[in-house]
Amino acid sequence: MDQIVHGKAGADLQNTPRPPLDGLKVLDLTVARAGPTAVRHLADWGAEVIRIDQPLPPKGSPANEDVVGTERSSDYQNLHRNKRSIRLDLKSSAGREIFLDLVRGADVVIENMRPGVKKRLRIAYEDLQSINPRLIYGSISGYGQTGPYRDRAGLDHIAQGMTGLMSVTGVPGGGPLRVGIAVGDLTAGNILALNLMIALFEREKTGRGRWVHTSLLESLLFMLDFQATRWLVDGEVPRSVGNEHPTGVPTDLFPTADGQINLTAPTPKMWASLCKVMEKPEWSAQEEWSTRRGRIKHRATIHAAIADVTRTRSNDYWIQTLNSVGIPCGPIYTMDQVFEDEQVKLLGLAAPVHHPELGTIRLVGSPMNFDGTEKRIRSATPDPGADAKEILANLGYGPEKIATLEENGII
């Protein structure tokens, strides 16, 4: 799991099992985070991914830079590993023709442009489906492929506000608060990856491709799940409750003798176990605390009583003791502490890879596991255009034609 791989997949992989998506050919037109997140799932599990990077800007013009940073930034390296790259000027007829040559042999194209952009470039699904009827075309937009917001730029921060996520995040009375990760981008990418797998499964039966798409708005609203359902079914507008849980009591951060712990015991069985472990039989005897509804009503009193007990012992004591009786309890880590945890180390979530310029770096490993298949990053993120000559040669382009394309700024 922690084996370091130097450069691209090669002879060192000949004796290892083929990854699940080996043979799947993907063209990556994505930028920022949502689209690359979808592509990363496919790349991590063996798909042959060719990233279509922007051409070099004219001399004297500002350099192209993705919102996740330059190609050597940690964020960019984490998003685009296990790929090859070619620069293409899709606005030019020659660049578009190269792209169409790639499409003819591809299984999947993934993009997260605004809907109107791909139509202007003539690389929308209807443009490509006619030359490759088996093509699966995946799209992520900010707000959907149709409707009054279709051409708005979609950003995670804006989607968090529009879906109500910010209204249920933060402490009571503190006002709307952004979640600390790009949860809208990541969720849209994860959902599109699932969408693509469903379409590929369907293609096995029909022999034909399909356009599949999602948006930050749809994906993030889906993630609001029980808060959204409380409004749709119960007519209740959820509010922020901080580190507490709106319906599961007790749930909160609690002080200990040397820090804080996360603790939750919302079920009758867990509540009974908590009362016993904390040597508080009188809590169980209180009729108004004996039901879920009663514990919600008396949340503040219950949490204060628990805090009086937890602050008498250490983090380690409560984490070990409570988990031993089936009560979920855990530490509050900073990021450096996360990767020192023995369970995180065991799961291989800090995955090493060798980059020719950066040396050996560690990236965030895939959360997926396939029994019998080694989980590792096969190759570091290439510089934009690094594989252009190889990719074009595989298409049958000769050295002279490749040189001309390079001279003309097409690649």
TrEMBL record:
GTP-binding in keyword set: no
**InterPro entries xrefs:** CoA-transferase_III_domain, CoA-Trfase_fam_III, CoA-Trfase_III_dom3_sf, CoA-Trfase_III_dom_1_sf
Is Coiled coil given among the entry's keywords? no
Name any one GO molecular function. CoA-transferase activity
- This protein's species is Caballeronia calidae
Q: Where is this region: Disordered?
A: 53-75
Report the protein name in the record: CaiB/baiF CoA-transferase
Q: Name one Pfam family in it.
A: CoA_transf_3
